[in-house]
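Our working data are protein records whose layout never changes between entries. Instead of coordinates, the fold is spelled out as a row of discrete tokens. Here is such a record, shown just as it appears in the course material:
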Amino acid sequence: MQPSDDDGPATEVAFGALSVTAGLGILTFALFPLALPMVVLTSLLLLPALPFAAIGGLGVALALVVRAVARRLPRRRRPRRDRARAANRVAQAVRPGPAQ
């Protein structure tokens, strides 16, 4: 069924969507028998990469554990004397020297 000339643009959009949906349905039915063999072949091709993915996952897990433990440890603070010396060094480095 084709839209007539007196129908609005919404009808034309609906008919266009209906045509696209019908075409995709036909394509899905045509390709469905190939779906299972493609899944099996893809999994066989990805099988050699599985050890690398496992090693990478263990590395990431180890890094996260180290990070979590490091955050829980108390930070070692410098004695007041050392902090004052460091502040003086920073102040001297920032302070402009005599004009030449």
About this structure: The chain has a mean pLDDT of 82. The radius of gyration is 35 Å. Residues 9-72 form one domain.
